Fold each of these.
Amino acid sequence: MENSILIKTVDLTKVYPMGGQSITALDSVSLTFRKGEFAGLVGPSGSGKTTLLNILGSLDAPTKGSAEVLGEKVETLSHKKAAALRNRHIGFIFQTFNLLPVYTAYENVEFPLLLLGLPPAARKKAVMDALDWVHLADRAKSRPNQLSGGQCQRVAIARAVVKKPSLILADEPTANLDAENSHHILHTMEDINRELRSTFIFATHDEKVIGHLRRKIVLVDGKVAKDEVIKAA
Amino acid sequence: MIIPKLAFRNMLGAGAKTWLNAVVLSMAFVAIIWSQGLYIGIDAEVSRAMIEAECGGGQYWVEGYDPFDPFTIQDAHRPLTGPLRTLVEKGQATPFLIVQGTIYPGGRIVPVLLKGIDPGQKLLSIPSSVLKTADNELPALIGARMSATSGLKKGDTVTVRWRDAKGTFDAKDLQIVEVMRTTVQSIDSGQIWLPLQTLQEMAGMPSEATIVVTEKNYGPAVPIPGWTFKNLDYLLDDIKSVIQAKTIGSSILYSILLFLAMLAIFNTQLLSIWRRRKEIGTMMALGFSRGKVIRLFTLEGALNGVLAALVGAVYGIPLLAYTATHGLGLPADQIDSFGIAISEKLYPTYSGALVIGTTILVFSITTIVSFMPTRKIAKLKPTDALRGKLT
């Protein structure tokens, strides 16, 4: 199971209609991701990184080709099934943190577990464990507007990992952070990757992130230009 | 249970906007209950007063009698026979005889209805016992309105002229022995109450009557030839129509309040969906389906109704309880302008059905208004929402 295939895309294509024209965001992308990978989609803006991440996260569907994520064909999933897949198996980390503003850090991290219907005691333990991983257990009662950008992103990481998902998708997670916070967060994600064996896939053009990747996939104009293993696991 | 829990958190998290909506909606809530309770109270009070003073448990009218057609009154009299006589003898009914007449107070000519009533009757609240007198004078009872319009007071004597059953005019002096205060205008204005037997003799209509009023809760009505039974639904119909018309008038006011509250909720929902589109995208990314997001936002809006009920209860219950126990005073000179038998104090009646009905109405409308803007979410792509776009 260690090297089992988690994601497989075959000739994945995404075309967006734009006025009377169409823009090809992804062009026949065929990739495979295995369990426990710490990989990154790298490339300039408009290269299709976020589009690919969205399809892998079942937030969007391909125009052509197929994307099989955790045994589910994304292109055939209904909205409800896609939501269930995300809820059970996928964690998201966003550039702008996307914390729910009226909730405390604890409640934000608890949110995915509420959807999973975990009992209160199990929920509390999992939330506090997740906040411990990101060293924010003491800020559990703080709301997002009482936290720094780095702390917000750590809460977002705790929220992504609290349900111990098989797949964590991070879209430019350090773009709004300073160097020190970026470094700290990347270490935290590496630790979680080692501890939980979750697959991390980043969309980034931040050199700090690229330095931590074990696999780098370069996208240019929606095509895979390079796919290389940088470091051994 | 997750959606109610989250909706509650979100609603309280919205802070001042939530409270503002709740306060406006609570005003509509309390206004509906207050105004409806007021008219229910008026209806109950007027009906009670009418039943006690005039209608009893229903009335037998001589066939052809129409109180709104003066030409029918002259022939509207008939001897009490059979079952009607039995009812009267058992004390289960009391007869009235109605004769048209004219009085001449202070040199003026005032047309009146002379109404004969049994001075010993106990069925109605008319103080007819004052007509029991050993004097030779013709004792008469009038109401305060009649006293005001005719200028007659207790102890005054006035000449009355009438036409008997054979069409002969006659006249006599009567003496006002009492001026009664009553909220029921229809036993007061333009009327003079005389002892029944005396009026029967004056009019040459021995043992005859125009109306026979039955005791309260009388029924089922026995058909009696020559007489038509008028039940309370018929007798109180005009009053209920007046109250209904006033109720509709008042409903315009609270409809405006309710509309404003709903507009505020609709607007808040619309803004909320626009402002929180990224949050919606995040929720979807975390595993919320569109249906769940719609339910969450609808419930958040609908909870305004619950909060409004709670806010309304804080100031509404004391306010409504105070008005229900102490009543609402009316200026004495405006009471008659209502056209119905209301007293100087109105006591609203708040029933469980009224409160529950209003609550269901407000909750239903709030839920519908809250749901309408959320239909936008049904078309929303998670990726667009995450980017802050609203498609």
Amino acid sequence: MILVIAMASIQSTKKGYEVGDVVRDFNLKNVEGKQVSLSNYKDAKGFIVIFDCNSCPVSKLYNKRIQALHKKYSSSGFPVVAINANDAEKSPEDSYEQMVKEAKAKEYEFAYLYDQSQEVAHAFGATNTPQAFILVKKDAALKVAYIGAIDNNARDESKAEKKYVENAVDALLKNQPFSITKTKAIGCGIGWKDA
Amino acid sequence: MKQILACIVLIFLCQDSLVAQNARTIKVSELEAILKAKTDKIQVINFWATWCAPCVKEMPIFEKANIDITEAKVTLISLDLNLDPAPEKVYRFIERKKLASTVFLLDEPDPNFWIDKIDKRWSGALPATLVLNTKTGKRQFVEHELVEGELESLIATVK
């Protein structure tokens, strides 16, 4: 009985995916108004899923770096899929309409998806923007390979000597192990809807 | 006239140095020392930045606690330097909002290296608040904008 309660409490405190977990596919609207699932990407070897938004100053500093990641890795099978989960009531700058404008103005080549219900952000256990989850296909399942920061210097890309996401994807492409699978960075807390 | 001018200059200089003194730049080692030092007061440490809208919104809660809750010591740790090396924006914010709580600017690159030293539960998202009883080691950590009354409850649970 005690064990059952203990198990239940572990379950309830576990928040989102950890490295190695299998990811459930989702279905979210992109900035062209189309519904997108990860299963739509037939040739993908994996994904660089990034919880992102328009308004966060940290996201703004990483915007070009995110575009560059997509340019660098989409052709080799790891496209960027950006997801905005911020509650538009709390952060009007992150409404769907503003996402459409932002994607057009900045000529996003990657999918920019709207997680209006915040279900995907909750499933992933996303905490802040920008936050990357690298997923890799293994035996028809998608598994989490990395969670965290894009690199270790938000302020100045040229001083970021640890390129976490690039290192991870490079290793995955070569089928090699890599040591840093989880990192943290200062970011904007996701604007959750009031419970 | 010269004397008046000198006085005005002096006042400005003093104000400037007061603000600068209040918002000293620190390294994470100094912050760790604050967390380790055993004091009679409950340490309330809020992590914020001028660019973080929910942080700015909840700031009056900390300012009020700084005055009203005598058993607590409020420290506001700005993470502005993480995005912008110039501290002036923070100084101006302190002046504009007339912040009375102690403010430090944390100057540490590479957040992955030090976030866990503050609290392992912290993802790095702002705002975040640590409430710590340094004598018993009891601590509470929250990673969201506080609602009215929440800080008082947090303080009560670590007493």
Amino acid sequence: MTNAELLSGNEACVKGALAAGCTFFAGYPITPSSEIAHMMAYELPRRGGIFIQMEDEIASLGAVIGASLAGAKSVTATSGPGFSLMQEHIGFASIAEVPCVVISVMRGGPSTGVPTHPSQGDVMQARWGTHGDRPAVVLAPSSVAECFGLTIEAFNLAERYRTPVIVLTDEMIAHMREKVFLPSSDEIKLVERLKPAEPPEWFVPYRDPGTGVPPMPAFGEGYRYHVTGLCHDERGYPTTRADEVEPFVRRLFRKISQDFDKLQWSETYYTEDSTLNVVAFGSVARAALRAVRDARSKGMKVGLLKLLILFPFVRRKVTQLMESSTTILVPEINMGQISREVKRVNQGKCRIETLNKVAHEPMTPHEILEKIEEIYG
Amino acid sequence: MAEGRQRIIHKYLRTTKLFPSIWCPGCGIGIFLGAFLRAIDKSGYTKDEIVLVSGIGCTGRIPTYVDFNTLHTTHGRALIFATGIKLVKPELKVIVVMGDGDAVAIGGNHFIHAARRNVEITCIVINNSIYGMTGGQLAPTTPLGLETTTSPHGNLEPSFDICRLAEAAGSVFVARSAVYHVGHMERLVGKALKKKGFSLLEIISQCPVHYGRRAGMGSAVEMMKWQMENAITEEKARKLSEEELRDKIRIGVLVDKETPTYQERLDTLQESLKEKAGAL
């Protein structure tokens, strides 16, 4: 059974969060993400959940982390300036290993920038925005249906890896409406955080059970333990000992890097015989697909790799594509951010071209096609 | 008596790691912690029911040492994490401990909004009028003129009155005590724990290392003597003029009122939504 609905990207994110079992939202109004808060404010209290508008974005993510520690699947939504403020607590959720989801709708920047227009300027902020070394998980929907599906997956990844997960959309995806077919609840696979199996007196809160992800009880379940933003030992107590800090930080990376192969989330179009391949994500991937089809109709051997996950970067998929490419084109609504990742994994395999736009308007198929024709000669 | 008190504290201290504490000799935080644990013991809450949340700084280290559900958050942000926890699990007793810089400098915005929102949190601010952990810098509670490491020529900024700030922001319970008055402090912790809604308890404490030396207040003993000589109960203070009250520490319960808590309002809302859904 599926239900056809006409939804905006923001609304689909809310539907996805609710379908994932989210019961807590804390946020602060900001264009172009506010509709997520509006719909959450309407829906959550009707379902026995909690919506709270906080005093700023720092407070929003802090409350979300608190709610998650108390056992609730929790989410916040924001955009550029608010995303900057949240960086402090993205770091906290990373080191304290608290599952949570941040939906960030990209708008023109820096600073207040162009609040009502799309951008892809926050890719590297999503990866590196908080201080210190930590792994990042960043998903990038390019349609309303993907807003729904990837928001569910964001909760699943957050719960599986005990880590903050970022859903990075943009103003165009957030505000456009599309017909989507929503799956029924029994078709949706949900992941719940692992709870300790042992009694409280045997519980060691941050001991690696072998998977890199320690089980996580909620506050009030009888497992009293310490949660801190300081580097900590297996018992959760602060430590500066090199022989405890080193394995701890490495485990934070390993719990995600060991699954890199499972996380190559992307889609390919017309890549069977293509020699010029476009790598794109978000709203630009839509324009890129149209441009690739137009180029095909003109006889050019062009393909597309659409990224659904930005970090961890889909290295295997991109390098596979490079084996059969002479050129990779990376169009983005920024001065070149995901293209840096493409160049990083290229290591001389092929030519990398970029197409950038910072007027914070949607990239058009025509612009990408022109660039394809220029490269194709 | 002393032995009996020791036993109460030891019921709550974590014994697996981290002793002795990071606090300097003469610090007031340990004296507070003793009174706090005795008040908890009297309150009847079990260890599993208590969530103790802190921010950053010397006071921020309290949760590490005690056997509750404990959370050591980011600088100034303890109240917002506490808000998330309390809303999801209203049955838990959520207590926040912060230093003065943590509470009203970097956390000032969260502080006033938590007081306004009236989510049931017992908020205890230990005020030593200076940044201790980072090396004796100016705080928003440092008196005018004081020479600190970041005001070497004297402080140019008037200081905050934390209790009046909480009162103005809507806190339903506001009280003050001082670590010298240890029995008084213990009783006020007990009262604050019982209060429905956002309660604020300010504890005047001493930092002999970074404040005592610079302000010429001397050792911990001299600083506590100062607390003894200058503390005046709220009942007595009400009869004195502003001039007579200058440089006095007003201790006792300053505000105690009844306002519906956030949770009560939320429960009413959810009930009415259920009824509406039922009516359809």
